[in-house]
Amino acid sequence: MIVLSTLVRRVSRPYVLLALLCAVAATVLTGFSVLSVMSWLSLVWVARVLGQEPRAVPVAPGAVLSPADGRVVKIERARDPYADREALKISVFMSWFDAHANRACVDGVIRQVHYFPGRMFSAELDTASDSNERNALVIDSHGQIVTLAQVAGLVAHRILCYVKPGDTVMRGQRFGRIRFGSRVDVYVPTDAIVNVAPGDKVEATTSILATLPQA
């Protein structure tokens, strides 16, 4: 867990430092100008979307947490192509202004990781789930299967994932990121209780998307 957290911080640090250097240079060279103000605003934006702050994890049993900050754009019964089953799919779209770290939504063991290169459609479109670059984790959470599919967006064709089959993840743990305007599709069992609706704003870890059936 410590090694993974350190790796994630290292991935973000160069971008934050570069934005900081640009802001300082713009201020030194131009003083209080439009360029310097925009540079500092850019620094705030970079720090926001690459943010890695810890978050409180709900203790509700069976809770499936949001893996990303964003907006729920789709809830439907669908085929989970990664675990080969019928499921409920909940899609969360991340805008350019949302933090882009992805976090595990359940405790469990990663059984499979599927990566597919793809096209660059807008992540808000239904076709993005099947056509865009994507990376899916099939997680066994105490006998229940939950699938997380990272789907790249229109602009940034770049998915990062720091876990592999056999790894154990815990709710709220950072496992990767997608850069700038992307989505995460969450597949849960068909008898799960959905706790959100299309249009809802959700936050990674703190928002509960669904509740898994309890034995």
Keywords, please?
36% strand, disordered N terminus, 215 residues, 3 helices, alpha+beta, 14 strands, three-stranded antiparallel sheet, elongated
Description:
This protein has 215 residues and is an alpha+beta fold. The protein has 3 helices and 14 strands. The chain has an 8-stranded antiparallel sheet with strand order 9-5-6-7-11-3-2-13. It has a 3-stranded antiparallel sheet with strand order 1-14-12, with no helix packed on it. The chain has a 3-stranded antiparallel sheet with strand order 4-10-8, with helices on one face. Helix 1 (2-30) packs antiparallel against helix 2. The longest helix has 29 residues, at 2-30. The relative contact order is 0.22. Mean pLDDT is 81; it is low at 1-11.
What general form does the structure show?
A: elongated
Count of runs of 4 or more consecutive helical residues: 3
The total count of strands amounts to 14
Task: Please tell me how large the radius of gyration is.
Answer: 18 Å
Structural class: alpha+beta
| N-C termini distance | 29 Å
Largest beta sheet: strand ordering: 9-5-6-7-11-3-2-13
- How helical, in percent, are the residues? 10-25%
Largest sheet: 8 strands, antiparallel
Q: H/E series, N to C?
A: HHEEEEEHEEEEEEEEE
The pLDDT mean sits at 81
Unreliable residue stretches:
1-11
Instruction: Tell me the strand percentage band.
Output: 35-45%
